[in-house]
Specification:
The structure is a homodimer. By secondary structure, chain A is an alpha+beta fold. Helix content of chain A is 44%, strand content 29%. In chain A, a hairpin with a 2-residue loop joins strand 8 and strand 9.
Chain lengths: 203, 203
């Protein structure tokens, strides 16, 4: 019966790059399972500033998009499609029913929440305890791995947004990285020259 | 039977101010229930820096001290006794048994984790998006409410530790607050003169 409940209610959707699936407060679509593609979960303040919390790749599951079924969660994340993606959505009310009736589902919810909690603690550690140069080096390595390329088509503006800092800070640091022969800058893109050096810097 | 399991295994302990109950990694004492007193939960990095995540007052429960029974939690918090405290401890193995067998206990675990997750998101928002002056103003108000006094016996060093910054930064800001007639500084303590002003500043 539970199998049927899932089978008849799970919705498969294709999203284009750039689409905002969940837009913070008051939205509670349900459990999101990424079949393929790439989503970014970020947190937005009242002032419109944002910070990337985690990314969802193939087979990743997001429970924060069903946060309304969990008591005590008083914040919400926004989900943005970073690459064209196929996702499955189990609606919040369906997941809520299963979660209530089935201990194994509840255990799974607990594990999903704990995983994201750990992700967020990692982000906080980066922010609080690492210098911006370290964070930028780590970000470039991560992006390169996500893009599967040593050339990144990304603006200083977008990098700054991801790292919650000003564009000027990023531009200055990238100039410094270029001087150190870690990267090569060109209009609208940058090429990583020295992965080993970036790794060392990212600590 | 579950009632007996709790009854025979819950340990009541009195802790003196200054005692570290849980010391980060590898410790997993169990569920900690504060009868009275005050505990501080903080996160420590390998380099020994720390950041306050939340405080536990009367009737508060800490599940992070039983994090070993929850999958996917890969960080750990330290618990420090800030005021002499009476606490009840339900050992991790006992809580683990109840959590496995009983859906209501699992739901309670989920709620406890979610509560702390929300606390941590709040702290992160403070750190990432607020200026240090705002954070300091908020900290002074919170301390005053915890101490139930407008005079705080707290060193600049301790404030700096709580806000993860340098003592010099705090001393400079407090001097500024004094000039603004928000506080009055004296050796080893400070008196809040203008709560409304601090509230306004804390945003």
């Amino acid at each position: 019966m539970e199998k049927n409940l899932l089978l008849f209610n799970t919705v498969a959707t294709v999203y284009q790059k750039g689409k905002i699936i969940i837009n913070g407060v008051d939205e509670c679509n349900g459990l999101i399972i990424v079949k393929n593609g790439q989503l970014r979960a970020y947190y937005t303040t009242a002032e419109g500033k944002e910070i990337t919390l985690y990314r969802l790749l193939s087979s990743d599951i997001c429970i924060m998009s069903a946060s309304c079924i969990i008591k005590n969660i008083d914040f919400s994340v926004t989900l943005e499609v970073e690459k064209d993606s196929e996702v499955l959505v189990i609606p919040a009310n369906i997941w809520g029913k299963l979660n209530e009736a089935n201990g194994a589902v509840k255990e799974f919810s607990l594990q999903l929440i704990s995983l994201r909690f750990s992700d967020v603690m990692w982000v906080m550690e980066q922010i609080v305890f690492k210098g911006m140069d370290q964070r930028l080096a780590g970000f470039l390595i991560e992006q390169s791995s996500l893009e599967e390329s040593d050339t990144l088509s990304i603006t200083h503006e977008v990098i700054a947004k991801n790292l919650s800092t000003a564009r000027e800070v990023i531009s200055r640091l990238l100039k410094y990285f270029e001087n150190e022969k870690l990267v090569e800058l060109s209009r609208g893109s940058l090429k990583i020259l020295d992965f080993k050096g970036l790794h060392k810097l990212s600590g």
